[in-house]
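Hi W.,

Here's what went into the run:
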Amino acid sequence: MLSYSLKRLAIAVPTLLILIVVSFVLMHAAPGGPFTSERELPPEVLANLNAKYGLDQPLWRQIVTYVWGILTEFDFGPSFVYKDRTVNEIIAQGFPVTLTYGILSFLVAVAVGVTLGVVAAIRQNSLLDYLAVGVSIGAQVLPNFVMAPILVLVFTLWLGWLPGGGWQGGQWQYVILPVIALSTSFMASIARITRSSMLETLNLNHIRTARAKGLPERRVILHHALKPAMLPVISYLGPAFVGMITGSVVVDVYFSTGGIGKAFVDSALNRDYAVMMGVTILMGALTILFNLVVDILYGWIDPKIRY
Amino acid sequence: MVHDTQRMQSLAERMAEDEVAGRSLWADARRRFFSNKAAVIGLALLAFVAAFALFGGQFAQWSNEELDYNVMGVVAQEGGPSLANGHYFGVDELGRDLFARTVQGTQVSLLVGLVGALVAVVVGTIYGATAGYVGGRVDAAMMRAVDVLMAIPYMFVLILILVMYGRSMIALFVGLGLISWLEMSRIVRGQTLSLKNREFIEAARATGVSGVTIIRRHIVPNLLGVIAVYATLLVPLMILTESFISFLGLGVQEPLTSLGALISQGASTMAYGTIWQLAFPLLFFCLTLFGFFFVGDGLRDALDPKDR
Amino acid sequence: MLKHSLAASALALAAASPVLADNPVPEDVTLAEDQSYTFWLLDAIKSMDPQINTDVEGSDVLRNLFEGLYNEDAEGNIVPGVAVDHTVSDDQKTYTFTLREDAQWSNGDPVTAEDFVFAWRRLADPATASEYAWYMELMQVENAPEIIAGEMPPEELGVTAVDERTLEVRITTPLPYFLQMLVHASTFPTHAATIEEHGDQWTRPENMVGNGAYVLDEHILGERVEMSKSDTYWDAENVVMETLTALTINDVNQGLTRYLAGELDRVDIPAGQFPRLKEEYPEQATSSPYSCSYIYMMNVGEKGPEALKDVNVRKALSYAIDRDIVVERILQGGQEPSYNWTHWATAGFEAPEIDYATWTQEERLERAKELMAEAGYGPDNPLDLTLQYNTSEDHKKIAIAASQMLKAIGVNITLDNYEWKVHTDRMQNQDFDLARYAWCGDYNEASTYLDLFTSYSGHNNGEFFNEEYDAVMRESKTAEDPLPLYQEAESILAAEMPIIPIYHYANVDMLNPQIGGIPTENVMQTWYGKDLYRAAE
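Here's what came out:
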């Protein structure tokens, strides 16, 4: 187990290196640079800027310098576009925002999704089941960029209950809509997976035995069925996590939360090389870490898995 | 949407159980598939959507790029669905026929989904089968590479590719295909490993059949079920991804459109009394996705019945 | 050197009685308790450094945090800022500004002539690498071109602090609109000690020292900017609005929804929504001319397509565009169809008579077809061109409509949508046929537009090089009355047609009727928080 985790962590290093090199090369090969502006800069000024940000160096040296800066000082460099900020600061400002609504969305999706799924499975073919299945199928295919404006129309404009955007340091009113917009489709997926895997589990022998022994249904479900039924849900958490990172872009655009998703898209459009690299590396590292957590969780639930 | 990796594994294991699983398996599967109501509905939906994409254009009164100056500028009042002026689905913000545009958008979305899935399946199968069959260090290296690639936040890379290299269909296909073959290659490789020491493969090898031929003739056919299911479930994922790309404004170039682009357009203006601009594309989007999901789930259940 | 006062009448009046009429609130208005104003930004503010900023939205914020020599009033007239008065030498080449005694930085330091000298040198200095360094060149400040090119030290710039309160500026050619140019954010003073201490970080709320009516409280990138009234501002007692908040909302439709929900006091109206909103909210939906001009630039240079080298083809393309449809059916916000380059409401400007502006669209279309036929194109020999535009809903709509209109004269247009950076890069490399372009005036005078198409301009991406045009524009710099020359320049543009004018902008806004003091008569749409107030409901 431990050696497996270490092995997975060891992969992280080459992964991040490849990610850095690929993004670096992709970025620099693209037309336009951070200093492309409506009026072409005089060559002297451009040369000055390039020297200031190290863009006059050969590509390989830029990469080495960049990686070295990260390794030795955890310094991702200055933003090329937002000149009074460093990448570390931009991430420090946006990441907690994304993390807050991301984690909340994740918890909501799992908690509500699993509950819905279990209830639907227990009451298979009841009205509740059909309702849960129907809603979750619909919610799965409704893109969050449709969901978000609907939420704002209903809760902000018509009902006037919640603000239509902003973050204000994460006050609860500002967090609710982003969390709903981000969590719904994952919640629906989790509900469906839970339902089908619960149904399978309930048909397994040891559950039948437990029931036959006269254990209360509640105990059967919670103590015997739930754990094995969670395996497919857990293997879905990895893709869900990646999906949420993607969804954060939509949330940031529609709710002006100032999170990291929008920062990434902006940096790509502005050719803010440093911010783009910083966010990509952060997201890569998070993905690796998260997958590791999922693996460990998986092993904990299903001791049959050998590493 | 869901990728239930567990059930995919279970299906793959079953498919690898017998040599070229035999006719009966497929016949049984077909029977089970057609007795599954959801799967049949899904198939009907897909047939309908495909027919709409292929032949819908025959019924359109307008082309997908013509501006109808009669309704342009007064779309909210006069641009709604109407039989009288030939705009069955109404018009978009510029007065272009939404029916023709939905037909055309469905074509692009289906194309993106199918080609993306095809790339994934072809690359994933070849890669996985090769790794599994060759084995040893090559296998280890190839799979390590997959591990590495899987940890890359692919959507970011996709955005990078599209922002940097313009927005051609090719870039979109390549970008989508690039990110989706990884899981496929893992499953294929696993099954190839368990297949390759089986008697019929060893027999083939003993008679001097080449590695490539063995993979092609003996290993891949045993994986057809997994591939079919995986591909069917991959198509809607590709369509969803494309819709997100369109939302970012990085999708196909005008006057071409996709369902994602139409939906994103319709969603942004839904407060302005032109709800049909969202409703019709969204309807076809949902029908398409449901269709693929139902058929994919149905196929999987049919090939890997849990009551065995 | 003989000096004599040449101040504009409004200026003289204001300077003579500086206390009079400075409170922005009319007498019959009851003020609301809460004096706050919330406005909308489409994007995150890239820089709050006056010498680095290039964006219109950035300037809106900067005008509240800093103050230049002169400001604009609600009609766009020049009124005193840090300068109370100035004199001009006989040869019109030396301006001497008298700065007010009570101007202060937010840390209590006095605002001196040295601060302007520092800021202007800093703008031109290649070490600052400002994209707007050329503005010093545009102002014709002595030695600016050489300094920008790195051939002279910044200290050689033609700007001197004679004493603490006297700033002398030497320019190389007389510029009738020199004072207007001083309203631009690039010319705002900056606090040398702060910049030296904090470097690039000096614009952060905790470090920033400004001299405007407001101080920066918070700047959360991509979310909001908060400013509050500055106690050290020289006219603080007449500043009514206590706080200014700017919210970044990346989606214009979302912005409107949030305005309607009461979260903002002012927001742009998305294209096509003005008529409906005007009907529903007649007191809130406003449209007023805004000094920006929208065109399709044609690539007539070396790398451009052969067809566009033919003036007949260029004319035909221009004639075929139905501008009325663009403004009345697509934008619908009070924009004006345009047949010339300079915005119609620019101060002192009057468009010359341009023949095709008076024709009906049928006449234009007919003429366009004839011209295409003359050029050898027709149904059997269609012309294929690309039309490039940067990502935006509105640009997309107009481009789609234009491509359909051009189809009518046998031109097949392929639409090419690129991100802003790629779009700009391709334009600068002459890698386009037709490209969408727009220019917003830096100051309220026609030369801000017309200079763009001189062969020595940094923006002439279509490579329209015309000696006659250059000569006319050179001459206009020293002319007593430049208008006839500007008209001649416009006539050359109409005759050579290197650009297809499409429309002149309007600022189309939803504005909370409680908010007073927003200028609507100023074509530059310059506004100052210090002039605003919120009336009680």
